[in-house]
Amino acid sequence: MATETELKFRIPPARLAALRRAVATAGAELQPLAAAYFDTPGEHLAQARMALRLRREGAAWVQTLKAEGAGTLQRLEHNVQLPEPLPGSVRPALDIARHDGTAAGTALRRLLADAGQPPLQERYATTVQRIRRLLRSGGAVIELALDIGEVRAGARSLPLCEIEFELLSGPPQALLALAGRWAARHGLLLDVRSKSELGHTLAAGLPGSPPAMARPLRLARSASLDAARTAMLANALRQVLANAGQMAAGPSDAGHLHQLRVGLRRLRSVLGAGWPAADGGVAAAAQEALATLFQQLGAARDADAMGSWLWPALQAAGAPALRLPLVAATAADPAAPLRSPATQQLWLGLIGLGLPAGAVALRAQAAPAKPQAAGAVLAGPLQKLWRQVRRDARRFQSLDDAARHRLRRRIKRLRYLTELSAGLWPAKAVARLLKRLKPAQERLGEFNDTVVALAHCRALADSDPQAWFAVGWLSARHAALLPVCAAALQHLAGARRPWPGR
């Protein structure tokens, strides 16, 4: 069993020729690849983020099983070199027993058993011309693999044009540094979606990967500070990169934008959770860059939100026709900031920040002799945040809208940190708090959407008198939501915290 450590990037068409020249040096190798990927009729492997394939590599055949690893860079991988097939056969037979005795093989056996032993069948295939080149950089040996070809599923096909940077030996920091230089030089776009995920969406008839939701994280109660921080960062970053990759590559919809913003909120919550300052300011710089990106995406999100509820509600209430909101924001490409070189470097920096035990910046100061317990460190910042939330929740109706918005942000932060650190605290206490946090966040979300829409329609009324109908309707909604929010917040303020503290 091996752990594959790699980064993959999409290549803008205009940059492909120059990139090909950079990879196809005298020492590079051309390798034709043809692979068939297998799954159950119910797509159980895809849902578990596993991939099982038979691939012809030149004249040789290799069976490979991949499963998700601990972080953004890593995937579990088990390869089995197969004897040459019998004359006249198209390919060797698939045999999952080849992976027995490995962690991924055990997970596959368990998955199929839980599903009732469904058959495995070919779902999609890839044909690729790969140009391979080895580089030495920063004490590491790194393989560059430029893949050009296609994914096929029945009569449907999708072009492939990507480059992978795989760490063969040496520190992962060297991989990140080299990939960062190539990304800046050639305009590369980080994309965590694997060939198997692209094939799955193609076989399912989807235009692209669906919006990636937040995934549960269960930390061990005894988790160390370093282990908890690494796991929480990796969990939040997965959601961010999955949605950002689909948006940058296209097509995407409002769901991707919404889940990207949720992921960015979760990521910012983790970075600002009050960890000991041992990263040389890297986390603070990342926080600032994430805040800028979040703000750039905000106008598009507000336009989507108003389009989904405000205009239908106004039409149902008999409002006169109005110009569409935020025309400039909706006309612009909301994914444009995600394709910028600065954002690509931000993603690589965050991956480096989340490397486990010995990460790029986390070892800027000497590690303590005894690992700190995550719960002991996180309880203090969570308790401080909880006190702020309870204080403002109890006086919600006397706050102005800016303070109410700040309360909403704090509730989101408290919810996300509670979810991500849930394994550190008693499960029933965590569930009770989350049961009160979620409706409070939802009510304040409706209230904030109303505040944003009201400000827009008031500005619109300066040039369009018909907007005064919307101003009146939204003002009434604003007043009606105040007691609804106050009730949900009073219920939240009466909750008990799951972490220790005064």
| SS field, number of helical segments | 14
Number of beta-strand segments: 9
CATH C-level class of the largest domain is: Mainly Beta
Structural class: alpha+beta
Report the biggest beta sheet as strand number plus sense, adding barrel if it closes.
8 strands, antiparallel, barrel
What's the pLDDT, averaged over the residues? 90
Order of helices and strands: EHEHEEEHEEEHEHHHHHHHHHH
Number of domains: 3
What's the end-to-end separation, in Å?
Answer: 47 Å
CATH architecture descriptor text of the largest domain: Beta Barrel
CATH superfamily of the largest domain: Hypothetical Protein Pfu-838710-001
Strand numbers in spatial order across the main sheet: 1-5-4-3-2-6-7-8
The name CATH uses for the topology of the largest domain is: Hypothetical Protein Pfu-838710-001
What is the global morphology? Answer: globular
Percentage of β-strand residues = 15-25%
- Whole-angstrom Rg: 25 Å
